[in-house]
Design brief:
This protein is mainly β. It is about 0% helix and about 55% strand. It contains no helices and eleven strands. The relative contact order is 0.32.
Length: about 120
């Protein structure tokens, strides 16, 4: 069965760093566009970063220059390196895999940036 599991979230101080991981199984990972989304309380879920099968990337303006998305197809894993974290980065971070009509989501991992 399809499974996407996020990990690496936690509580960090402003200016700190976290590395999120997304472990995927049950689908042909290398074909999928993999993305990180986040959702803060009372706000809509927003796209943070995405990486295509060719490893090209896109980022939300709010995280550009601070976050880096990458994928390791041999490990069926996507990463999100988050540096210079701000309080507004707080939220639940979700990993998504999309290909054609297939669209899979993980359960999310909480990231809290607070002093």
């Amino acid at each position: 069965q399809v499974e996407i599991v996020e990990s690496g979230g936690g509580l960090v101080q402003p200016g700190g760093s976290l590395r999120l991981s997304c472990a995927a199984s049950g689908f042909t990972f290398m074909f999928y566009v993999m993305s990180w989304y986040r959702q803060a309380p009372g706000k809509e879920r927003e796209l943070v970063a995405m990486v295509n099968s060719d490893s090209s990337t896109k980022y939300a303006d709010s995280v550009k220059g601070r976050f880096t998305i990458s994928r390791d197809n041999a490990k069926n894993t996507v990463y999100l390196q988050m540096n210079s974290l701000k309080s507004e980065d707080t939220g639940v971070y979700y990993c998504n895999g999309k290909f054609a009509l297939y669209d899979y989501w993980g359960q999310g991992t909480q990231v809290t940036v607070s002093s």
